C-alpha cells in the first residue's frame, strides 16, 4: 500500500452499478471482476494517464468514479 | 499527570461487573460521576488525556485507540453527538447485553463522561429492536433526569451490518440502517452532519472507570499496548459458557480454563467472532489474546467472541453455514459483496459437503482475493478473513473432502450459533 503523493483513481462501491465505461476508457488501470465491477489500482496515476482518468470520471453514468489526492480507505 | 483518587478501587478483576444493576447499588460501589473533577475546558482536555494515557482501545471489534477518537471528535467545528453502540449483532457475542443488564449505569456514566469530554449534549443509546433489554434501558434512563445530556434510546433493525458505525448514523439520520460510503467518517460528519463519537458500550464503561480511578489504575492489568480488562463471550464445547472479564495478554488455554475448560477434545477455537480467525489446537493453547494481532493467523480478540470447536465437529461445514449467513446479511449495495459473498458461500459449501473439484477450490481462492477490500464497509473483508482462516486451519480436512469423503462432523448439530429466523429483520427500515 503506497502512500506517496499523487492523484489516485477511486470508486464509490455503493454508487457503482457495473456500467464498465471506465474499463473502456482506462484499460491500463481498470479490470473487471467476474460480475462486471471494476477492480481499480489505487497507486498514484502516472502523469500521462491523468487526462484519460479524468475522462473516465466524467463518463461514469452514476458518478461513482473520482480522481483524488487522498485515499478514502486504506485497503 | 496524576489525579488524587477520592476512592480506592482494587486493581483486580472484576472491574466492570463489580457494581449493581440499580442506580443506588451502582452509586454505592462506584460513587458519583466525577464530572466536577473535569470541569471546564481544561478539565475536558484532562479527561481526554487520562483516556489517552490509559491506552484504552475500542471494545467493539476494531480496537482503535479511544483517546485518539475522543480528541478528534472534540476538535470538530460543531457541537458533537455521542452514540453508545450496544447493538451487538455478532451472534456469538453476549457481553454487551450482559453489561447493559448487569451494569447499565456504568455504561451510562461513561457515555455522559465521553459526551462531556468531546463537548456533546446529546447521547443516543443504540440497541437491537424487539428485546426486553431496550424496554429495561428505557426505564433506567428515566432515573437519570439530572444528567447534563439529552438521552435518546434508538431501536435498530436486527441485521449484522446495521451496527457498523456509518450504518448507525445513516439509520438515525434517515431511517435506513445500511452502511454508507466513506468519507466522511462519522467522527467527521455523522448525526445531523455533526462530528459523532460512536463507541461500543463496553468502551464507555471503561471510560467511566478511567475517569474515576485514573490511567495508572487502568494499566495495572493487561498489556503495554492493550491495557485494562476486557469482556469475552465464551461458548461451544466448554463446561461453563458465559461472559467473562479477562486481562488482555492471557493465553487462549487460560481463557478456556476460566470457562471451566473443554468438555471434549477440541480441534480449534474461533476467536473474534464471525469476522475473526480460527486458531488451531494444540499449537494455539499458548497464544496470547489481545486487540493486537498475534499468531500465524493474525488473531485478535475483536469484540471478544470465542467459540471452542470439538474435534468431532467439522470446521469447514461450520464456516460454510456462517459464510452463508454473512452473505445473506450483505446490505447488497456494493457489487463485490452482493455477488461475491454468495458465490464464496456456495463454493465453500461445495468444499464442506464434498461436492468439490480442484477447479472449484481454485475459484474459491480467486474469489476471496477478488472481494476483499472492495466494499464501502468491512463486511466483505471480515467474511473473507473467516473463510480464508478456515481453509488454512482445516487444511487436512480439506484434503479429505477434496477426495470425495466427508468427515462425520458434517452431520453434527451446529456449534457456531446463528440467529433464529424469527429474530432477524428482512429489511433495513
Could you give a short description of this structure?
The complex is a heterodimer of chains A (75) and B (429). Chain A is an alpha+beta fold.
Quickly count the helices of chain B.
14
Please tell me what the overall shape of chain A is: globular
Which structural class should the secondary elements of chain B be placed in?
Answer: alpha/beta
| Main β-sheet, spatial strand arrangement of chain A | 1-4
Along the chain, the helix and strand elements of chain A come as EHEEHE
CATH first level of chain A: Alpha Beta
Beta-strand content bin of chain B: 5-15%
Beta-strand percent range of chain A: 15-25%
Largest sheet of chain B: 5 strands, mixed
Notes on the structure:
Chain A is α+β, with helices and mostly antiparallel strands. Chain A has one domain (8-68): Alpha-Beta Plaits (2-Layer Sandwich), CATH 3.30.70.20. In chain A, 24% of the residues lie in helices and 19% in strands. Chain A contains 2 helices and 4 strands, in the order E-H-E-E-H-E. Chain A has a two-stranded antiparallel sheet with strand order 1-4. In chain A, strand 2 (30-32) and strand 3 (38-40) form a beta hairpin. The longest helix of chain A has 13 residues, at 47-59. The radius of gyration of chain A is 11 Å and the shape is globular. Chain B is globular, with a radius of gyration of 22 Å. Chain B is α/β, with parallel strands linked by helices and 429 residues long. Chain B has helices at 23-30, 40-54, 66-74, 95-102, 104-118, 132-142, 165-174, 201-218, 252-258, 315-328, 335-352, 358-371, 379-393, 395-402, and strands at 81-85, 122-128, 150-156, 196-200, 230-236, 242-246, 266-271, 277-280, 305-310. Mean pLDDT of chain B is 93; it is low at 1-7. In chain B, the strands form 2 sheets. In chain B, strands 6-5-9-7-8 form a 5-stranded mixed β-sheet. Chain B starts with 22 loop residues before the first helix and ends in a 27-residue tail after the last helix. In chain B, helix 6 links the parallel strand 2 and strand 3 (150-156). Chain B contains 14 helices and 9 strands. Chain A: Pfam families: Fer4_15 (PF13459). Chain A: This is Ferredoxin.
